[in-house]
Amino acid sequence: MGVLVVLLAYFAYSSWDRWLRYDDASSIQSQWVVEGGTGTVTIDGESIHLTDADAYSYEMDTFAKTLVFSFGDLSGSARYRFSADHTRLALQDGEYGPVGNFFDDLGWGLANLGSMLIGQGQLSPTFGEGSIVLVRSDSALQDQVQEPVEGDAPSQTQQEQPAVDQAPVGDGGQDASAEPEVAEEQPPAEEQPEESIAEIGKSSGEPGANAVRLEDLL
């Protein structure tokens, strides 16, 4: 009986935490950093912006915890999961239903709760292999701890630079030993194309004619 009460209590807590505690449609609207990368992805209420020019419209089902995104005649779908504090967002390609997502998240939530109770902190929301984890950019900045690098601070001997011997100066105030400088015309530097976030994590396989995958977006 006691076990049943505990299970019912956890089920009720999970339902509240899943559907009532946060507004997913609001939480997803932020600037995100691909975990392990440097590119940023901006998500607003209607589109996923990879660059100023590339934007994919999306629809969010906060009950089923799924996304449907499209670009022109291309479309795709994925499921999503937020971390306990909504600072991380996991995405996984595919078509998923509300029941399967609920029980998957129920198991993850139990493991996450256990990890927090024993003092190991919250777990990553990742679905495992094939999923992408985004980190909210303001959290990513806070997570970056700059450790002092040995030898960064200049020593006293480095700060005190010895005087440089002056070479003899000829007429006109020019260095007599210096050879006249000949200005060489430099060829114009080639303009490098700006790297798009769409290239980050892009797979080598070609998507279907009417399918777009998260790997291709991020």
How is this structure best described in words?
The structure is a single chain. The protein has 218 residues and is an alpha+beta fold. The chain has a domain at 2-139 and 207-217. Helices cover 27% and strands 21% of the residues. It contains 6 helices and 8 strands. The chain has an 8-stranded antiparallel barrel. A hairpin with a 4-residue loop joins β4 and β5 (66-71). The model is unreliable at 145-151, 153-159 and 191-209 (pLDDT under 50).
Main β-sheet, in a few words? Answer: 8 strands, antiparallel, barrel
Helix content: 25-40%
Share of residues in strands: 15-25%
Q: Categorize the overall geometry.
A: globular
- The arrangement of helices and strands along the chain is HHEEEEEEEHEHHH
Radius of gyration: 28 Å
The residue ranges in which pLDDT falls below 50 over 5 or more consecutive positions are: 145-151, 153-159, 191-209
The overall pLDDT, averaged over residues, is 77
Count up the helices: 6
User: In which order are the strands of the major sheet placed?
Assistant: 1-2-3-4-5-6-7-8
Distance between the termini: 48 Å
- The total count of strands amounts to 8
**What structural category do the secondary elements indicate?**
alpha+beta
Which key phrases capture this entry?
about 220 residues, alpha+beta, 8 strands, about 25% helix, about 20% strand
Break the fold down into its secondary structure elements and pairings.
Layout: H1 2-20, H2 24-27, E1 30-34, E2 40-43, E3 47-49, E4 55-61, E5 66-71, E6 74-82, E7 88-93, H3 98-117, E8 131-136, H4 137-143, H5 156-159, H6 214-217
Antiparallel strand pairs: 1-2, 1-8, 2-3, 3-4, 4-5, 5-6, 6-7, 7-8
